[in-house]
Amino acid sequence: MSEDFLKSIRIAAGGMRAQAGRMRVSAENIANANSTAATPGGDPYRRKIPTFRTTFDRELQATTVQLGPVRQDQSEFRTRYDPNHPAADPRGYVKVPNVNSLVESMDLREAQRSYEANLNVVTSTRRMIQRTIELLRS
Amino acid sequence: MATSDVPIFSMLRNRMRWHQDRQKLLAENVANSETPGYRARDLVAPNFDSMLRGGVRAAASAGASTGVGPVRTDPGHIGAIGSTVQNRFEVRRNTGLVATPDGNRVNLEDEMLKVAQNQMDYQAVAGLYQRSLGMIRTAIGKKA
Predict the structure, then answer these.
(1) pTM (two decimals)
(2) Which candidate in B13, B17, B20 is best for mutational testing of the A interface (most A CBs within 10 A)?
């Protein structure tokens, strides 16, 4: 009878996994916010964007969420005038990554919020299972 | 006589199953709260009137109290055990107006509220079930 409850927990766990993956990508972006190229005029770190995908899990008979392919942000790199930098082009400009730390931290916050929501579902379902087991006592 | 032959137990069990199915749907909604184009779903609350009518009709045709469940209109029908198990509940897609630009229609706050409510209702039903068991226990002369 608690089959369905276990399914709920597994669906929520899938959501937590996806959100954790998203946090990992955001962490990569923040960590590499200053990673410039090693060669003069080369491209710096390009911001990564996590994507979500709905999949129908035949075993669970439910739509679960999965982390899709991690895409790259195709927006322009910003440039900074720094002629002494090893990655500076002949005009003295260095390309810096297209990472906006404000956007990343908002993304992190959102992932955290969704993670907690999934955790809430797990806690609630666990209580329901516990209540079912308590029927056996008494 | 199994406990499922007692109408109150089969009714409560049906209700518990409904809460289980609902919990599963809510878990799906929360997990997909940021998937583009995903629309939240929920179970339609069981309608007391229609269930009661179905139950009364079944009781009249079978000549016994079968509680809430599918109706046996032909002697060739194979009755489910206890003949009160309703396997599928009606699913409704959320048609709320609020959608994010990527077409997602999950309101996380709403879902959290529903999860909490579902849990509380389930616990109430489980409590009723326990009480009913206690009554049977009293009837057979054991101290509850």
Answers:
(1) 0.77
(2) B20
